[in-house]
Design a protein that fits this description.
- The structure is a single chain.
- The protein is mainly alpha-helical.
- The chain has helices spanning 2-11, 18-98, 104-185, 190-202, 226-234; strands at residues 209-213, 216-217, 239-240, 247-249.
- The protein is 75% helix and 5% strand.
- It has a four-stranded mixed β-sheet with strand order 2-1-4-3.
- Strand 3 and strand 4 form a beta hairpin.
- The longest helix has 82 residues, at 104-185.
């Protein structure tokens, strides 16, 4: 009977000390921070790639609008040229009619029509000049946008290549770290692991476990009383910062040498 009880005790999971729990938590934090660095390094490039893609779409839209505006200006110029030709034809017609008028009233009427058509021609010629200047500017803008979009496409190509290279280089390393993190998590009781993940999620820099540095919390930098620091160094219980809620360990456990 005694042998059976002893055997059952051997099969039960070994209870780890508070110090071992703290070491496991700090080790897990270290691995998690390294994964964060990889994600940050990779995370900036996709944003840059997305920004470039959005910029290229915007340039494409601007180029298409410029092309549409140029076509519209060219149509306006062509329209004004037709108006000028029509006005000239009417002037020639009115001048010919003046030779066959029966009285001064008809002659004056035709003279006013001729004068009006000449004014129309002047106005159309002025508009053509304005449209021509506008067309030139829009064509210059189109050339600049076309040149710029080629530069941005080249930048995008380089950024994508850089991103693919980083993903390729870090993927295997990240997978190894995640496997290591899982191994460490198995050593930590579920309740404590849940608390760790909750604190880490709420922390701005992803730090759930920090060490005491210069008598202060390594997360929020608030001063820690001397008695509390002593409790942390004794490693007899898990202590959290009363200001930010992070789990506190001593610098020696974290492997940091004090000067």
């Amino acid at each position: 009977m005694a042998k059976a009880v002893a055997k059952e005790k051997e099969l039960e999971p070994k209870e780890i000390t508070i110090e071992e729990k703290l070491k496991a938590l700090y080790e897990l934090q270290t691995v998690a921070s390294e994964i964060d660095k990889i994600k940050t390094l990779r995370g900036e490039l996709p944003l840059e790639v997305q920004d470039l893609e959005d910029e290229i779409v915007g340039l494409d839209t601007r180029i298409e609008k410029n092309k549409s505006d140029i076509a519209q200006v060219e149509a306006e110029i062509a329209g004004k040229k037709i108006e000028i030709e029509e006005a000239k034809m009417l002037i020639a017609k009115y001048e010919e009619q003046q030779n066959n008028v029966r009285n001064n009233r008809e002659y004056d009427f035709l003279s006013k029509e001729i004068e009006f058509k000449k004014l129309e021609i002047e106005l159309a010629e002025k508009k053509i000049k304005e449209y021509t200047v506008d067309e030139k500017l829009k064509k210059e803008e189109l050339e600049q946008a076309a040149s710029f979009i080629e530069e941005r496409k080249e930048d995008l190509k380089q950024k994508k290549a850089e991103l693919d290279e980083i993903v390729s280089e870090t993927k295997q390393e990240e997978e190894k770290m995640r496997e290591h993190a899982k191994e460490i998590e198995e050593k930590i009781e579920p309740r404590l692991l849940t608390a760790f993940k909750r604190i880490r999620k709420n922390a701005r820099n992803g730090l759930a476990v920090v060490y005491v540095e210069r008598d202060a919390c390594g997360g929020c930098f608030n001063k820690i009383p001397a008695q509390r620091q002593l409790d942390i160094r004794l490693r007899k219980k898990i202590i959290v910062c009363e200001y930010c809620g992070r789990i506190l360990v001593d610098s020696e456990l974290a492997g940091v040498n004090k000067e």
